[in-house]
Specification:
Bound molecules: zinc ion
Shape: elongated
Structural class: alpha+beta
Distance between the termini: 123 Å
Largest sheet: 5 strands, antiparallel
Number of helices: 5
């Protein structure tokens, strides 16, 4: 490598630079407005000569030119690139107004739906712009005023609610105070009253019990059922009753039922 580099820089003794017709690139006359830059394609496009697609982001060595056009003192630049297949020249410009680029020559920009639906401000005159801005400002102010009114209303409602709560609280307090006072004064009276009530309830219950018992011992005809013990004539049965052993709670073993009884299985009668 290094050898090659050295060799290429060899100038023979009879070298005459004026004999060269081709001017080296860096010495060619080019305006100060033109310079070579490395860039990426800012949008996808299709070459008009060969139909090659050049996708957004493809890198190019481009010539950058400062045009005389301006947008609000912002200079507009033009770039020259070459098609990757047919080397046809493609140019595009910056578009500061829409923060975009405009394809000029040699290629067609691909369709991009999000660009189609943008609000169309291109043909807006200055007066229209001013009007639009004014309208927007007015709307903003109205919105703010509406917000203020809403705030005021809310405050009013809040204070109303607070007052209602305070009233309710006051009422509860006075009632509590009244109850306390009455309790302190008439505690004993109340106590005796309670006792009276309890007695009354007990008496009523007893009466009810009695009534129930009486009804239980009456036959349907309204005759009193006689107790067997009272019957003197039938002393034998009474004695038998008396001698009956008292009920015992001891565990009594019951005879086991046959297992199949509960399951509805019937034993076949034996054939023998
Ligand atoms: Zn091409």
């Amino acid at each position: 490598m290094s050898e090659r580099k050295v060799l290429t820089k060899y100038y023979p003794p009879d070298f005459d630079p004026s004999a060269i017709k081709r001017v080296p690139k860096h010495l060619r006359p080019s305006g100060p407005k033109l310079q070579t830059v490395r860039l990426m394609a800012p949008f996808s496009m299709r070459c008009e000569r060969c139909g090659e697609y050049i996708y957004k982001g493809r890198k190019f060595n481009a010539r950058k030119e400062t045009t005389d056009e301006k947008y609000l003192t912002i200079p507009i630049y033009r770039f020259y690139i070459r098609c990757t297949r047919c080397s046809g020249e493609i140019t595009f410009k910056t578009d500061p107004k829409n923060m975009d680029y405009v394809c000029e020559r040699g290629a067609k920009r691909n369709f991009e739906p999000w660009r189609e639906n943008k609000p169309d401000n291109q043909h807006e005159t200055e007066e229209e712009i001013l009007n639009r801005l004014e309208r927007e400002e007015n709307e903003e102010r109205e919105q703010m005023e509406r917000d203020k009114m809403a705030e005021l209303e809310e405050k009013m409602l809040d204070s109303k609610r607070e007052m209602a709560i305070a009233d309710a609280l006051d009422e509860i307090r006075t009632r509590n105070a009244r109850i306390e006072r009455s309790e302190a004064r008439g505690e004993e009276v109340a106590l005796s009253h309670v006792r009276d009530e309890a007695e009354e309830a007990r008496r009523r219950e007893e009466q009810e019990d009695e009534e129930a018992a009486r009804r239980a011992f009456m036959t349907a005809a309204g005759e009193k059922v006689k107790r067997l013990v009272d019957d003197e004539a039938d002393g034998g049965t009474a004695a038998a009753k008396e001698t009956a052993p008292p009920p015992s709670f001891a565990r009594v073993k019951k005879p086991k039922k046959p297992f199949d009884a509960g399951l509805g299985i019937k034993k076949k009668p034996s054939l023998v």
